[in-house]
Structures are given as structure tokens and as C-alpha cells.
Amino acid sequence: MRISKLLPSGQEQIIKHFEKGEVLGEALVFAGRKYASYVVSEEDSEILNIPKEVLLSAFKNQRFLLSYLRSISEKTLNLSGIIEMLSLATLKKKIASYLLELSLEKETHVFSLPCSKKMLANPVGSTREVVSRDFSELQRDGIISMPDRNTVEIRNLKRLEGILFD
Fold first, then answer.
1. Dmax of the chain from CA atoms?
2. Out of 7, 51, 122, 141, which residue is the most buried by the measure of CB atoms under 10 Å away?
3. Residues 81-97 pLDDT 10s
4. Is 0.90 topped by the overall pTM?
5. What own/partner pairs with CB < 8 Å and gap ≥ 24 does 83-88 have?
6. What is the dihedral of CA 87, 158, 122, 104, to 10 degrees?
């Protein structure tokens, strides 16, 4: 499933892809307003709608409450990362920031990309081709190597960090 917005031009802007078991809309339950987007199912799906009253009752269970708060906290941190990413001026800086974050998260300089370059391009308003070109440039400059399509090895951490300050 994906959450999308339709732009006035008719173009679809993908906000997020969801996998099986992921929760969506948990913050909207208590916000008291609607969000102008669409949920599009890319395959047969089931959606469970939990009314606010049922959630409030479930919050009496501390384990459920902690799980709910963890979910909202993770999404808040994710949104903070997206805002930080979007504030960077160039796509190359966004890619450098993304790779550095993954390296910190995985605690290694060799890791697999969690999504395709096309999915990486959507949230930053770019295309797969432009993202691929910047990855190729980082490889050509010896900053990273990619033994296959999804594996990244940061070879020169200082130069990758330096891209953020160019």
C-alpha cells in the first residue's frame, strides 16, 4: 500500500509505502482533522479501522500504550529525518546524509540499501536515473563502492561527510 497526494497537475506524489503489518494514521486519530491524501492498495489488502474510543480503552493496557507511543515516536523521528533531508540543497548532499544515517543505524560501513533507488528518489522529488548518476559519481570518486545493486561500502567517510559542508 502507499499513501499518495495528487498534485494539481495530476501527477501523483508518493508520501510513503507501507508493508504488511504497518500502522498508518495513528496520529490523525487524535489530531481532530483530516489529511488530504489517498491510500492506494497495490495488492489485495485488509485494513483494520480502530475507533478513537477503542484506542482510549486499550491504553489502559500499559504494553499496548507503550507500543502505540513507540510507533508514533518512530514516525516522528522518521519525519525529522525527512525534514533534515529536504533541507539539504542538492541531491548529492541528500544521498550523502542518507548513507551516513544508514551507516550509523547499522553500525557498519558496509550495508544493504533498504529500498530501491526509485523508492529513494520519490521522497526527495527526483528520479531513479538522477539518483543512480549521483551514486555512480560517488563510486567514481572512490567515496563508496557498490559490489552489487543494493550493497554500499563507505570507503572514505571523511569525504562523504565533507559533501554535507560543500
1. 57
2. 122
3. 777 766 777 889 989 98
4. no
5. 85/123, 85/124, 86/124, 88/164
6. -100
